[in-house]
Amino acid sequence: NLRVSSEGHEEDFGASMQDEALSESWQVPTHRLGNDLQPHEDAENFQALCRGEQLLSESYLATLSCFYDHRNNHYLRLMPVKVERHYWEPELLTFHNVISDSEIEKIKSLGRPMMTRAMVQGARGKGNTISNTRTSKVGWLKDTIHPLVAKLGDRIQRITGLSTDLAREHAELLQVANYGVGGHYNPHHDYLLVDKTEKELLYNIHPRELVMGDRIATFMFYLSEVRRGGATVFPRLGAAIWPVKGSAAFWFNLKRSGGANEATLHGACPVVHGTKWVSNKWIRERGQFLKRPCGLHPDD
């Protein structure tokens, strides 16, 4: 059942659970969770979550809930957003009914002509290379291509409280992605810079990326129902977000300190039956220093 959020209570409760969330009491005995997993453990958890197995204990799941929230936005006080919590810290949320069917069809129609095979960033000056870890087609939409694209950027800004101003390079273009049967994305982090060495930043990263800062947060619209498969899963947390058309997943990739939140390792499960459409907005650090200030502790 949905309830109206009591912001202060939830904030305090989330803080109290931060140190406990990855403790053994929250885990199913057959699977270990946390940031100290070996690569094979990440892979095993990824596969288990994609099979629909439950890796979090009933006691932890009992602390999660659905609620209405105005997200500290005056517009949303009149029309609160429906929120589903999947994890406390790092916070994994789904916002339900945030994009209509007609808007979905328009975004898909705008994205189709732009789509190419998903690629990864190569060394500076060497272009991009086809990714074997991500079997999908992607396209990028500028705000100027259609009023709806800019409208969705504004909507994301209201819901997240973060700036999505493209002109000031506070966010990336809206990405549209399509996964066919078997389409997947192996576990990865969305941040681009914080885990790089000085040499990698110098030779592998375009200077413009450094100006924009890292990907502080991910906002992902689900544009289709997937008959089977296609979940977004977090192997180190034991959490899974199953695609619901018209909803959007959201999480922060970085801590308030600007450090990497390694627990946000996530992947897209293979599509077993049907097709999967998503649309991503990656929000950058630039312009967010007043929107998401540092906490009181260095590791916040």
From TrEMBL:
The keyword Oxidoreductase applies. GO terms for cellular component: endoplasmic reticulum. Residues 170-285 form the Fe2OG dioxygenase domain. InterPro entries: Oxoglu/Fe-dep_dioxygenase_dom (IPR005123), P4HA-like (IPR045054), Pro_4_hyd_alph (IPR006620), Pro_4_hyd_alph_FE2OG_OXY (IPR044862). The lineage of its organism: Eukaryota, Metazoa, Ecdysozoa, Arthropoda, Crustacea. GO terms for molecular function: iron ion binding; L-ascorbic acid binding; procollagen-proline 4-dioxygenase activity. It comes from Cherax quadricarinatus. Keywords: Dioxygenase, Iron, Metal-binding, Oxidoreductase, Vitamin C. It holds the Pfam family 2OG-FeII_Oxy_3. Residues 1-12 have a biased composition (Basic and acidic residues). This is Fe2OG dioxygenase domain-containing protein.
